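Interim report, section 4.2 (structural modelling).
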Amino acid sequence: MDWPERIPAGDWLRGASAVVVLSVDVDAESPVLARGERYLNHLTTMSHQAYGPRVGVPRILDLLDRYRLPATFFVPGVTAERWPHVMENVAERGHEIAMHGFTHRHPVHLSEGEQREEIERSLKCFFRFGVAPTGYRAPNWEMTRHTLDLLGEFGLRYDSSLMDDDRPYAMLSAGRPIAELPPHWLLDDWEQYAFLPEPDVGQQIEAPSKVVELWSAELEAMRSFGSLCMLTLHPFLTGRPSRLRGLEEFIRFALSRGDVRFARADEIASAVLGGEDAPGTGPAPQS
Amino acid sequence: MDWPERIPAGDWLRGASAVVVLSVDVDAESPVLARGERYLNHLTTMSHQAYGPRVGVPRILDLLDRYRLPATFFVPGVTAERWPHVMENVAERGHEIAMHGFTHRHPVHLSEGEQREEIERSLKCFFRFGVAPTGYRAPNWEMTRHTLDLLGEFGLRYDSSLMDDDRPYAMLSAGRPIAELPPHWLLDDWEQYAFLPEPDVGQQIEAPSKVVELWSAELEAMRSFGSLCMLTLHPFLTGRPSRLRGLEEFIRFALSRGDVRFARADEIASAVLGGEDAPGTGPAPQS
Amino acid sequence: MDWPERIPAGDWLRGASAVVVLSVDVDAESPVLARGERYLNHLTTMSHQAYGPRVGVPRILDLLDRYRLPATFFVPGVTAERWPHVMENVAERGHEIAMHGFTHRHPVHLSEGEQREEIERSLKCFFRFGVAPTGYRAPNWEMTRHTLDLLGEFGLRYDSSLMDDDRPYAMLSAGRPIAELPPHWLLDDWEQYAFLPEPDVGQQIEAPSKVVELWSAELEAMRSFGSLCMLTLHPFLTGRPSRLRGLEEFIRFALSRGDVRFARADEIASAVLGGEDAPGTGPAPQS
Amino acid sequence: MDWPERIPAGDWLRGASAVVVLSVDVDAESPVLARGERYLNHLTTMSHQAYGPRVGVPRILDLLDRYRLPATFFVPGVTAERWPHVMENVAERGHEIAMHGFTHRHPVHLSEGEQREEIERSLKCFFRFGVAPTGYRAPNWEMTRHTLDLLGEFGLRYDSSLMDDDRPYAMLSAGRPIAELPPHWLLDDWEQYAFLPEPDVGQQIEAPSKVVELWSAELEAMRSFGSLCMLTLHPFLTGRPSRLRGLEEFIRFALSRGDVRFARADEIASAVLGGEDAPGTGPAPQS
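Predicted structure of the assembly:
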């Protein structure tokens, strides 16, 4: 396999020591339904996932408002269709909406045709909401080389699924420049908080204090390396009261540093690709 | 699948910032026997579960007495038959007894006929003890839409198995109003304390200090959202000395807030359904 | 299944608020070889287990000497045969040696004939070392009713495998009185420290500070209930430097209470069975 | 199976209370590709592993420079071929390079012929870089007796895969003396930090503070036993910002003791085998 060729990247730090992107994956029921339609009948499992769009998203939106912070919401097509208010509310508050597959099936398990269909259905669904996404994140971050090529073909400007750096970079996808904004498992709430026996989506419930420490320690050390702190949150997990308060603690820690700014993913992508900010990419970065 | 229709709910907070329900699932040997009758011959496994009714329940009852707190005990039919003293002692101390399936098999794995039989056998068994339950919790919280419909059909007033909110709500089940009192994995002792290799019921043994912190942080944050803190305890786990002391610490933390009250599940259900407290639903709320 | 009938027990606390038994399961290679002879060729796995008798046991013996504490060593026959010095050294230092199966296969997976053979081979092996054991612990604590009956038949005076109490009790086994000295997973080092990928014997490596806290909190709370703190240690785990120091911290904590004493298992069994201490059961209890 | 015969070992402590070897296993993509070539197409999995040679190794090299510490890098042949710069940079900075299998397949799963081939291919590959390794570590530490014999046959002077001590020792391998420098799971970053769902290489993400405590407590206690603290680091894990800082904290703790020195593995092996240091084995030990 040829690795995607890297190309020179623009200045995205803009004087900050590190940048935080608050990315919110609004998976809702999609990861469960991707494992089988039979889970439609598991009322508890469905309700566990529905907590995200029903309770978690509004609370996260309120928290962002309170701190006047920008965020990027990755929304699977299935979620957009089941919970149209989520799309509307997130857009109204001025946040970015980006793609996260249609059914939340992992690209590594899909044929090339199925991968294309996932993107086409997502785009079509988003257009109905008046949303023209510029970014993509693979479900479970598990993409193939073909997924990446499709992103270029469909004109997307960034991906957020690869983990070979903690700083964004630019590369060629299907001959077009695309930015990579690397996430990581350790900056994700799923590995710390997800517990559900059937289907088994995780078996661990850590205290928020551990998670705040984990994330704050990473951000603190990232300030020495000029890294991108791509935090990944799931409303059905982080929307719970004490976890939301943990997120707030992390935000306050980041703000207290004085040299960390918050940005939407599309703003970082534009800077990496050397262009100006796309119009309407939302709130100005914090300083 | 149509989701159950929500209907307006009554005032259940009654001036408190959050309400704690101490719910005790007296599973005893039932979850093990539900996996196979062969475990009857596993003396250690059986003894591990028997610790609950034999040692854990009396200690929890004493702790509740000491703090004069109300609680709700969810008792599988199998436990009621194997440990009749549990039913009698819990009732004598003035606590609520509610349904938790007969065999502790998970409804999602049962036919509609088997689900009905589980409820009928439970009711019949409870009536022999003079107990007329008004509430239900699905074993492992894994219910189907059909389970919910059965609850309405049998005249139950509340369920405590769904997780799409952390505040109680009212909905229609088989055309009758029913209250949902949402539990959650993070407010359960099982995920933190359960270890048993055969059958594998869990593989984690956390320190009580972590669990107290987990639950206290959740309750503290719930005070901002007016939530129901539905704590779920298993006597074969929380009955162990240091965990019991951890529970006591949590209780003292809750009482120290000044604006958190404790209630039985049926009292909350009555308030949600807009009615008066059923007669004899137990102690007055703490302030 | 009929449960073993309980009979009145003698005074084993003797004025203490709780009693600690330091029990050491010298499993060495036996649990690995019980999974398959092929592991004889896994040099790393074999060496991982050999650390116990080679390094861990001498260090634990030295620690016990330093604090002049009695202990009970449960030794599988396979270990006694592979590591005869362990049997000799433990006996020389005045500690108790008790049975732990011959091959470390779990009784729940053995036929009645195989169970009998395990005990007969163990006794024969122990007699060659001049050891006449009075106690038994089932490998992985997983015994059946038949195992218990065999203990009475072979004249053993106590078992340490059942978990339906945290205080010792007396019962009838094959018509003879036998004492039960209950262990528990939370007072075992295995669940906190064991990591080995092939065969998978565990996947967790906790810091000793967590384990000291877990055990100390349990002992502290046991002082209110007059419990038996049956600590279970594996030399291939607890023999590592920092874990040994953790054990020492726990010992110092116990001694600092002033009302906790240490005893060998056979001394407790004698008291429970109402008799005098067997001659030569070792050091006097600490105060 | 006959165990390798032990022979008298030279003085490797040289007045220190304990010695730390910083060993770095540059696995990169090899453990993943050893599970199947299909992972070449899993872009995220490949990128997750590529973080090691791409970002982690340079950062670790810089940290070692800053503290002027020697280290030993165990490099699978696959990594050397895919990432030649790693070999060159590590050698330039004066660190030791040792063998870690060619494909990272575990020797316990290979035939004798395959095991031989692994070593021959590794040596051939290393020679192309001008590296003549004197040490070996089995992938996943899972070696057989045959692996050990091959080490003697190929003239290697030490192995670092066995766990039956925490002090180095000498033994005969194919009639030649060879040193064993024992590692252990608890001094490895993998068990604390590795999370990757497909292939499943681990499911745990601990905070660096826990890991620093785990390792520092072990080193502290090792000072009483004159042990070798064989720390094992993986650049794709420890190369992340907060974990690198955790490693630095551990280093500072070790240096603060005053009687702990750092050494390369080959220096320890030479001392154990009673010889002088091999010429050019790198930086002098710290005091």
